[in-house]
Amino acid sequence: MSGGRLSRRLAVALLVCLLLTGCKRRDRKVRIVQTDEDSASLASVIHMSDPSAAPQLLKGFHAIEEKSWRWTMGEFAVVLRPPRNAATKGATLHFKFTLPEAVLAKVKPVSLSASVSGTALPPETYTQAGEFDYSRDIDGKLLASDAVNVEFKLDKFLPAGTVETRELGVIATSAGLEAK
């Protein structure tokens, strides 16, 4: 997608959010009960376009936009169900997102880091706007439970009041653990 089209889409999306009252900061906490029924209700991969994924968004996500994505804040987290046999084989974490030119122009290079169950993963720095997949292999020892918290952090983002009333990081489309 060309930078001009992305910038126009971003401007339209920001304007729509300013006009809607549904775009509010949402911090959620999920109480995880270790039962087969509860862990079965968690997904290994969540799509930001799916309203039923909202309970797995622990913090730092805004409302669904254009029925397909969500803005993040500077820090955001999800809870995921490890895939079958992940405790022995490990898995791959995928976080798919867009870094808009409008954000990159204001904050310059952006680094994204993550942690799984409190264990830090290597960060990645993004110097260009576009669509990305932050992908990291996860050791099986970190995936031995029925639910895993994954926390993300951007080193730079747009503070609330810079462009609009919300804090803006990246445009998230999905997050998940893929079996090896």
Helix content range: 10-25%
How big a fraction of the residues is strand? Answer: 35-45%
The whole-angstrom Rg is: 16 Å
CATH architecture: Sandwich
Oligomeric state of the chains present here: single chain
Envelope shape: globular
Instruction: Please tally the helical runs, counting DSSP H or I stretches of 4 or more residues.
Output: 4
Number of strands: 10
Based on secondary structure, the structural category is: alpha+beta
Q: Describe the main β-sheet briefly.
A: 10 strands, antiparallel
CATH topology: Jelly Rolls
Mean of all residue-level pLDDT scores: 84
Question: What is the level 1 CATH name?
Answer: Mainly Beta
- Distance, first to last CA: 31 Å
Describe the structure.
The chain has 180 residues and is of the alpha+beta class. It has a single domain (3-179), classed as Jelly Rolls, CATH 2.60.120. It contains four helices and ten strands, in the order H-E-H-E-E-E-H-E-H-E-E-E-E-E. The chain has helices spanning 3-19, 36-41, 86-89, 101-107, and strands at residues 26-27, 45-47, 57-65, 69-80, 91-99, 110-116, 119-126, 130-138, 148-154, 171-179. Strands 1, 2, 3, 4, 5, 6, 7, 8, 9 and 10 form a ten-stranded antiparallel beta sheet that branches. It is globular and about 45 Å long. 31% of the residues are buried.
